[in-house]
Amino acid sequence: MVKISLCMIVKNEEEVLHQCLNSVNDLVDEIIIVDTGSTDKTKEIASQFTEKIFDFEWVDDFSKARNFAFSKATMDYIFWMDADDVLLEEDQVKFQQLKDSLANKVDAVSMLYHIAFDEYDNPTFSFRRNRLVKRARNFQWYGAVHEYLQVGGNIISSDVAITHRKKDKSINRPQSDRNLKIYEKRLEKGETFTPRDLFYYSNELKDHGQYEKAIQFYNKFLSEDKGWVEDKIRACINLAACYRSLGDAEKEIDALLKSLVYDVPRPEVSCRMGDLYKEQKLYEKAIIWYHLATNVSTENIMGFRQESYSTWYPYLQLCVCYWNIGEKELAVEYNNKAKAYRPHDPAVLKNEEFFNSYFANK
């Protein structure tokens, strides 16, 4: 059986670090903690699990910190997590099974990353990341912000999922502008942005409400026609969201349709197109797009996946659309399909109550 080093970079993570390390402590053979300047009890908590705690002076570069952490590993494979990540019990079992069966010829293992959840704690936003890598291959991290681990060779996809658990939601924290500031410092220095930098800088601008500037950089990213195709598709979707925030429906549609250059319509694109037609009461056209959303498989999509757009959401909208064109039986059918995914959803239950009353009074 292979041995595994867990490598982490942390700063002021006293609220979440214990739950993270506790979820993986029995699965790894070594824990490496690199602290980038904590002023709370982060190191004290880390010391309950490992003696291998190292200081690293923060230089506005996540890759340098992660590569430093990797350099301290001594086991066969390196596994990485962030402090607000955990392995749930079912994934701890899967991780142990992976560890028991992992062949030495494997160079890297990708795992699902669940980062958003509905009120029933079902994952709503997921994607894959390379999480476990052979130490002898000396794979490196790249990118000051939104860094990525460049791997090659024999890469396998596992069914292990890492679950992102944010800090206490009851504490009101403003959105961090740390990453945005790092990008802007780099621009001020005259650094040349890679396609990945352009994409993630655009995302930061959008997330901070700087829509016009975000549009400028999304278009720059797309016009250079470089980078990962999944980032290009997401850039089109995010570009459409910027135009929507600015009230420009025509350019919103153009941005969504541009994503079709790179692949078949993703369910999110189809649902957003359906929403645009539904808002205009063009229900027959909306129906076409919502059906399309349910007919495209998301299983092999390597980029961001939002399950709602291929499951309950288009079904719920089809219910509304069919009712408005007089197809009442189909409206009930699609509400029931939505209910199969969200049995306690208020909108689904309200529709059901309405239908029961309507048909009882006929």
TrEMBL record:
UniProt keyword annotation of Transferase present? yes
- Could you list this entry's UniProt keywords, alphabetically sorted: Transferase
Enumerate the Gene3D superfamilies for this protein. Spore Coat Polysaccharide Biosynthesis Protein SpsA, Chain A, Tetratricopeptide repeat domain
Keyword NAD present in the record's keywords: the answer is: no
Q: Where is the Glycosyltransferase 2-like domain?
A: 5-93
State which residue ranges cross the membrane.
Answer: none
GO MF terms listed in the record are:
transferase activity
Q: Which InterPro entries match?
A: Glyco_trans_2-like, Nucleotide-diphossugar_trans, TPR-like_helical_dom_sf, TPR_rpt
- This protein is called what? Glycosyltransferase
